[in-house]
């Protein structure tokens, strides 16, 4: 990944961390300890879910798929990975996936007034290519499957 992209990613993470600290500080200042603990638990849950990316993929792919989680947040989606069974992510990245498909998922989900939907994504390498499965109870048929031909 280019240095400029890495710096952009670090800036985004620092910005998000600053926002989290402001929320936690606000809860502490107001004495809302229970809500503060719930918020910290949510942050910890996010970090635990993201760990899969860094454990299963080579560094360049890990950064790519981590960026996708940030893109998903911009779309109002909480992205969680279920399976990351990829021998190589080059073909997927060459096709600008799963970015393109995630944007379609966001369109299908539409705008909701309640909390952000959680979308689970599996990427499985098979002989024919890579199968991407997006799962969410708010999607038609609860899932969307996309094939990336190799």
Protein described:
The protein has 150 residues and is an alpha+beta fold. It is 55% helix and 21% strand. The protein has 5 helices and 4 strands, in the order αααβααβββ. Strands 1-2-3-4 form a 4-stranded mixed beta sheet. Helix 1 runs antiparallel to helix 2 and helix 2 packs antiparallel against helix 3. The protein starts with a helix and ends with a strand. The mean pLDDT is 91.
Please describe the topology of this protein.
Blueprint: H1 3-29, H2 33-56, H3 59-74, E1 78-85, H4 90-94, H5 99-109, E2 118-126, E3 129-135, E4 143-149
Parallel strand pairs: 1-2
Antiparallel strand pairs: 2-3, 3-4
Helix pairs in contact: 1-2, 2-3
Instruction: Describe the main β-sheet briefly.
Output: 4 strands, mixed
Question: What structural class do helix, strand and pairing data support?
Answer: alpha+beta
Beta-strand content: 15-25%
Tally of individual helices = 5
- What would you call the quaternary organization? single chain
The average pLDDT score comes to 91
Can you summarize this structure?
With 150 residues, the protein is of the alpha+beta class. 55% of the residues lie in helices and 21% in strands.
List keywords for this structure.
alpha+beta, globular, 4-stranded mixed beta sheet, 5 helices, 21% strand
């Amino acid at each position: 990944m280019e240095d400029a992209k890495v710096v952009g990613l670090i800036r985004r993470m620092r910005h998000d961390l600053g926002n989290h600290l402001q929320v936690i500080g606000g809860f502490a200042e107001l004495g809302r300890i229970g809500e503060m603990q719930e918020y910290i638990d949510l942050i910890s849950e996010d970090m635990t879910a993201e760990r899969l990316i860094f454990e299963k993929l080579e560094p360049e792919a890990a950064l790519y798929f981590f960026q996708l989680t940030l893109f998903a947040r911009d779309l109002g989606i909480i992205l969680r990975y279920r399976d990351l069974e990829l021998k190589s992510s080059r073909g997927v990245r060459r096709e600008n996936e799963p970015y393109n498909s995630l944007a379609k998922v966001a369109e299908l989900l539409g705008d909701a007034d309640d909390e952000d939907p959680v979308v689970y994504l599996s990427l499985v390498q098979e002989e024919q290519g890579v199968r991407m499965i997006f799962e969410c109870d708010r999607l038609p048929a609860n899932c969307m499957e996309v094939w990336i031909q190799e």
